[in-house]
């Protein structure tokens, strides 16, 4: 057996008080102080947010009204009548202070190259990029799609859009050409920004090739800006494609660009995320509310202090990177690290090497990363001096107590508080997390609501759940960072978030609250799965599988996965005339990679003769989930199914797939065990 996270049973249900040393210097120093600020923020939200807005944002024009929010419509507005510019807040205003020559962004490349941008330098790059976009005809309100790896130009490009009022939409570099095309067409982008290729664990991914395929059917894209990252050969289409470095170096491009005066509710960006049905949703975030919310949550939840070096390991292709690599940190004038690589390449101490190199103080990552690094063994963490760390964070999925304790002991050295931050692409910023230094930590629980946020757990009948009772997590009131709509589809916005529990925002997550008021997240309760902290709609993967000529029907369910949190299990029913085979399995995996990207490929496929359906034809995923979790005895009554006999057959077939999976895992562990012995 390889190095596993060793459960520490006697500590599992222990509550950890905030470390005294930390509390002394924290912005919020005690539970009483937290409760007092929280109470005020709920009793007088207008007063609270106005005060935060005065202190944290520079406005070109002040608001006439702080908020006007109605979940029943839904219609949500903050800082009505106010004007500001996001890039001005993230850059220009710092240039008037000692921060002018402070590091804003430290970029570390996969192969150890690095660049540091001071606020002054970043400002110059952003202005030039903004002027280039203008030259290409991009105007306020136009959409610009970014399909880039974690290179500085991505952060620069987003800030450049915000400077001129263009709306950015980042498509994660791991998505396929088809996924990219869908998103470009949905938001009708005018310009695509990409690069030749990206590095991933020593391999090169041909991004421009993918972009070329996508651009075959994207009529709105007039221009494609291409950065050079890997030096691989690419095809350039005349009249459309432009070498970005050359265009930016043009002496006619000025290093000054006036920031556009944006209305508080003008769109800032669209970010696509998976839903339980249909195609991905383009969630729209607006200017003032989003910026304020990310800035304030960054300050309090990460207890940001001027001298901190902050590292969020997420990719900017996801909301975490938007909010806590770019906007939250830069609005606060912080030093933010941006890392191109992966945690285990070339060695499993890559992250700790970076912590040592830049003396990182606050480190924010995902449970899947913690679990995979724990598996590599403690020797890797001990090789590096990580004593600069003072606070750790977790995001993306529930962190299991074993992983929490491993993080606490081996990375936090029992000295650093851990913030388990619950939020979503829709929420813009963190909604639930215990404030470090103020609120005791409860491993496995995200903790308490942030200021101004009123969560609740509701039972299916709409009544509030009692202590420790499971239910749906809703938010009763608005907060400035909430997404304002689904781009081009307000009806879906209303149906998805505001129709299930009327008058409340429905998160799609299950939760319970314990006697201390700590929220425990219990995973998605809709047809969304969470693979390594990435959200995937089961419907999206199913739609991809049924495109294959052999497939009649498919049903996807998540299953507990040691490292990824959830794995993807596909039940596939074939068309007559087709036989199941290893080759067909490979083809189906390829199909999902092509339509969505490598993150969506099933971990296991089971060919079935029929799927459990109600008489009205709805697939009963609940039953499939129980089968996959080896809890067939908990399936319950199946007499209402159209054909109850399919269940028995699926259970039999599942045993064969399980033993294959077991074999595969054991083989992998033996190999990894050998590899570890060689390298440590
Ligand atoms: O299920 C919750 C889970 O991730 C979902 C949101 O995914 P996404 O929009 O991609 O944003 C991820 C990063 C903010 C949630 O509905 N989730 C996120 N953080 C946590 C979590 N589940 C439990 N605990 C968390 N700390």
Write a structural description.
This protein is α/β, with parallel strands linked by helices and 680 residues long. 34% of the residues lie in helices and 22% in strands. A hairpin with a 5-residue loop joins strand 24 and strand 25 (519-524). Helix 2 (31-43) packs across helix 3 and helix 4 crosses helix 6. Bound molecules: adenosine-5'-monophosphate-propyl ester. The site of adenosine-5'-monophosphate-propyl ester has 21 residues, from helix 11, strand 20, strand 24 and strand 25.
Summary tags:
single chain, 680 residues, five-stranded parallel β-sheet, globular, binds adenosine-5'-monophosphate-propyl ester
Task: Describe, in short, the structure shown.
The chain is α/β, with parallel strands linked by helices. The chain is 34% helix and 22% strand. It starts with 19 loop residues before the first helix and ends with a helix.
Strand portion, in percent? 15-25%
Shape assignment: globular
Compute the separation of the termini in Å.
16 Å
The order of strands across the largest sheet is 5-4-17-16-18-19-20
- Backbone CA Rg: 25 Å
Number of helices: 20
The percent range for helix content is: 25-40%
Which cofactor or ligand species appear?
A: adenosine-5'-monophosphate-propyl ester
Q: Which regions contain 5 or more consecutive residues with pLDDT less than 50?
A: 675-680
Please tell me the overall pLDDT.
93
- The tally of beta strands, per DSSP, is 30
What structural class do helix, strand and pairing data support? alpha/beta
Largest sheet, strands/sense/barrel: 7 strands, mixed
